[in-house]
Amino acid sequence: MKNVRIWFEKKGAARYISHLDLTRNMARGLKLSGLPVWYTEGFNPRIYMTYAMPLSLGVCGERECMDIRLTEDVPLEDIAPRLNAHLPAGLQALEATEPVDKFEDIQYGEYQLFLEGDPAVLEEQLHTLFQREEVLVLKHTKKGDKEFDIKPDFQNAQLHPQEDGMLLELRLPCSVNGSTNPALLQEALKRHLGLEPYGAITRKCLLLQDFSPLR
User: Fold this and answer.
1) CATH numeric code, 2-99
2) Contact, 3 vs 98, CB < 8 A?
3) Domain spans of the chain?
4) How many angstroms separate the Cα of 71 from the Cα of each of 2, 43, 46, 66, 150?
5) Beta-bridge partner residues of 2
6) What digits encode the pLDDT tens for the residues 18-77?
């Protein structure tokens, strides 16, 4: 039995694929690829797959990953091409590696949030927002909705003006103990300033406690 970590990207129209449908597409691709994947035991055997911090619907991912198990040795460099032959547009396997870190060790996600509009105006609006003592938004949790102050997570965002908007680089909590969705910043702009700029979110990678990338 060999553990394998498959790195993949989820872009374009695929960002609107739910996690359940992502799992179905990956299972179908693995089955059609002919790779000797290991199935769970029991009354309803399924291909063993486990994911690191699933993406929210509508968020692109540049370096996502899932772990599988193989019952026979296969060269790691052969796995991604065989899987890609059976994946839909927007989903692409990048490479396969041997897992080094545990998914439970993930602590942060590195994101880019693009806000459309006049960059000078957006910079002023963001500055105004974070001048507030608190930046409260309504966050949905398993225990219900509650007020959440996003200022500590977002106030150190790096701003990069673009021709048609503002690109924010964010490092946000992302772990089994809780995560902060970049879209909460858009919620804050709407709630506190009455603004609704179009936003596009991309997760660049997942990080460990020391901010090194997951391996």
Assistant:
1) 3.30.70.580
2) yes
3) 2-99, 105-207
4) 6, 20, 14, 17, 45
5) 70
6) 999 999 999 999 999 999 999 998 888 899 999 999 999 999 999 999 999 999 999 999
Element (H, E) at 188: helix 183-193
Asked if residue 188 lies in contact with residue 129, where contact means CB atoms within 8 angstroms, the answer is yes
CATH class for domain 105-207? alpha beta
Structure tokens at 157: 């965002």
% helix / strand / coil in the chain, to the nearest 5? 25, 40, 35
Q: By C-alpha distance, which of 24, 8, 214, 212 is closest to 96?
A: 8
Q: What does DSSP assign to residue 52? A: S
- Decide whether 2-99 matches 105-207 in CATH topology: yes
pTM of the model: 0.92
Q: What is the CA radius of gyration of the chain?
A: 19
